[in-house]
Amino acid sequence: MKELLKNFDKAFENRTRLGIMSVLTINEYLDFNSLKELLGVTDGNLASHLKYLEKQKYLTYEKKFLNRKPNTNYSATNKGIKAFEKHITAIEQLVNK
Amino acid sequence: MDNKHIEDLKEIKEIMNRSTRFISLSGISGISTGIMALIGSILAYFIIFKHQNILDYNPVEISNKDLFYLLLIAFCTLLCSIVCAIYFTNRKTKKENRKIWDSQSKRLITNLSIPLITGGVLCLMLLFKGFIGFLAPLTLIFYGLALVNGSKYTFKEIKTLGLIEIALGLVAFQFIAFGLFFWMLGFGITQISYGLIVQAKY
């Protein structure tokens, strides 16, 4: 049991963060509003979780201007994708036990 | 503890699906475009075969004036189908409280458009060179390819619909005199049945 829990990633204990990573692993990039709609969370909530994942270097972002409005595209880093896969494998092993 | 993780996995799967597939495509829009196609092809039938009997198996001659009418019918059918599809899909997205123009629908449109526009341009070129018989089979084939290509980004069922259209197109090439009937079968009947299936399922 302890062996399995070792592979659990603290960053993904939170549902929203897990959601963000799962969406970003299969989409090349997504903007803030698409993420918000997909996950059904508030602006502030999403922003803080994005910041957390960014600090872990699990995701990067690129700021652009679309019709003079700021538009930020988020994408997962290789490190983030690896961490996410490891976490999912750990969950699967636990569930299959 | 286990339950929480199973829930997590379920949610991940659900979110991943929702983030890549545009699932608000309305079944009614499939039915309506099918009906438009039937009306359009019946009109076209009367223009193409007004002087000849289809069973005579003679090369069909089409005057410039009739060609103009055929293009007009084709254009109106296409326009009505697109308007209907957008209208019914928009109604469905409103009901589900979503936007019709999001990253999923954009991706679906892009992937549908590439084979469709290629096929459309090719068919127009063939039409102006006088190869009118090729149009029905080729439009079926390219429409089928577009559906197979777009199926990754919407309902899985669309893929089989695409494969059926491709098969019908190939058969239509073999029996080129009956192209219009295969066209009615593919764009009309098959499309309507698939619209019904999608409507019942989602």
Rg over C-alpha atoms of chain A, rounded to the nearest angstrom: 14 Å
Please work out how many helical segments of chain A DSSP would assign. 5
Average pLDDT level of chain B: 88
Structural class of chain B, please? mainly alpha
Q: Between the first and last Cα atoms of chain B, what is the distance in angstroms?
A: 33 Å
SSE pattern of chain A, N- to C-terminal:
HHEHHEEH
Residue fraction in strands of chain B:
under 5%
What is the oligomer described by this structure? heterodimer
Name the average pLDDT of chain A.
87
Sheet with the most strands: spatial strand order of chain A: 1-3-2
Largest sheet of chain B: none
Describe it for me?
- The complex is a heterodimer of chains A (97) and B (202).
- Chain A is built from five helices and three strands, in the order ααβααββα.
- Chain A is α+β, with helices and mostly antiparallel strands.
- Chain A has a three-stranded antiparallel beta sheet with strand order 1-3-2.
- Chain A is elongated.
- The mean pLDDT of chain A is 87.
- Chain B is mostly helical and 202 residues long.
- Helix content of chain B is 77%, strand content 0%.
- Chain B is built from seven helices and no strands.
- Chain B has helices spanning 2-20, 27-48, 64-95, 103-128, 135-150, 157-174, 179-201.
- The chains are: A alpha+beta (97), B mainly alpha (202).
- At the A-B interface, helix 2, strand 1, helix 3 and helix 5 of A face helix 1 of B.
Task: List the SSEs and their pairings.
The complex is a heterodimer of chains A (97) and B (202).
Chain A: H1 2-6, H2 15-26, E1 30-31, H3 32-39, H4 43-55, E2 59-66, E3 69-76, H5 78-96
Antiparallel strand pairs in A: 1-3, 2-3
Chain B: H1 2-20, H2 27-48, H3 64-95, H4 103-128, H5 135-150, H6 157-174, H7 179-201
Helix pairs in contact in B: 2-3, 2-7, 4-5, 5-6, 5-7, 6-7
Structure, briefly:
The complex is a heterodimer of chains A (97) and B (202). With 97 residues, chain A is of the alpha+beta class. Chain A is built from five helices and three strands; from the N terminus they run ααβααββα.
